[in-house]
TrEMBL record:
Residues 1-284 form the Deacetylase sirtuin-type domain. The keyword NAD applies. The active site is at residue 139. This is DHS-like NAD/FAD-binding domain-containing protein. One of its GO terms (molecular function) is NAD+ binding. Its main location: mitochondrion. Pfam families: SIR2. It is found in: Mitochondrion. It comes from Lentinula aciculospora.
Amino acid sequence: MPSTNIEDFRLVLSNARNILVVSGAGLSAASGIATFRGQGGRWRKYDASILATLAAWHENQSRVWQFFHYRREEVRSKRPNDGHYALARMCIPKWRQVVAPNATVTHVTQNIDGLCLEALNELSTTSGEQPDGTVIEMHGNLFDVVCNAFDCDYRAKNMDYPICPALEGTEAIVAAGHVEPVVRRADLPHCPKCQQLLRPDVVWFGERPKQIQRILEAADSADLCLVVGTSSLVQPASKLPERVRLNGGKIAVFNLESNTNHSNEADFEFVGPCESELSQILGL
Ligand code: BJW
Ligand code: ZN
């Protein structure tokens, strides 16, 4: 059985040399962003996980762009919560030194909402301290686009609202009970360099996660892994704690529910909303 003893956890934390944080949708739940596999994990009548595939993209680019347009609009008004800030403090020397003085921190998030980086940038600006920890968005970012053409290297941050005029209002049409609009390919976002279709720069099933080599290296050198708000059903993120454990490291799970994939192999398990648990248990 994993321990729930906060003092024992803090001792492990204070002695850690390399900390790997693996976070998922539960971290952003308190910011008002639906998790993938929980309630609200559907868009219109579609399962979000089914849409997160290359097959869905090839089948209906209009639908996938409408889905991303909707999520870009949803997320732009959302703010980081206390869970994001607690983890961001782990990446800023003046806070981390209090709880884990000798540790490096690599925060690998599966979330594409940008809130982990937003919290880190905000705390860095307000405290005037440079982060020394790293946040890696392994499944990409909602506001990044990449050219769909195999021979074009265009890739950019795109905060436009709407990303193209034809997507504006598509959600309202469906919400009003009308059939799903079909946006013509020519009216979807296009590459300014080669005029081919753009796609969201996110990682769908079957695709290679971003910065995977760096992530695996961080896992191999970690002696403590915090697994936060993820169902741990999706590889390779779900395999990272196991990697840490095989190297003799400890695992601490923070989740609203017990018995997630990693509960059995965890050394510590803190069941509850991570937006309050993290700051309390980390002491940040
Ligand atoms: C709270 C809380 C609160 C709620 N406080 N907790 C068989 C066939 C085909 C493929 C495979 C196969 N077997 C394995 C694969 C590989 C596949 C995979 O894992 N499939 C499984 C589903 C079977 N993986 C891939 O294809 C990945 N690529 C890959 O493996 O490449 C090969 C490779 C590996 C290594 C090196 C080189 C190459 C890519 C996976 C891409 C996943 N993409 C998505 C979509 C992103 C874009 C988009 O958003 O549209 O990423 S899917 C979706 O799931 C999204 C999420 O990041 C990801 C994980 O979900 P997450 O975060 O865990 O959310 P939930 O909803 O599942 O869980 C929420 C949790 O929070 C719950 O536990 C709650 O209890 C908790 N919670 N509120 C604390 N307040
Ligand atoms: Zn292009």
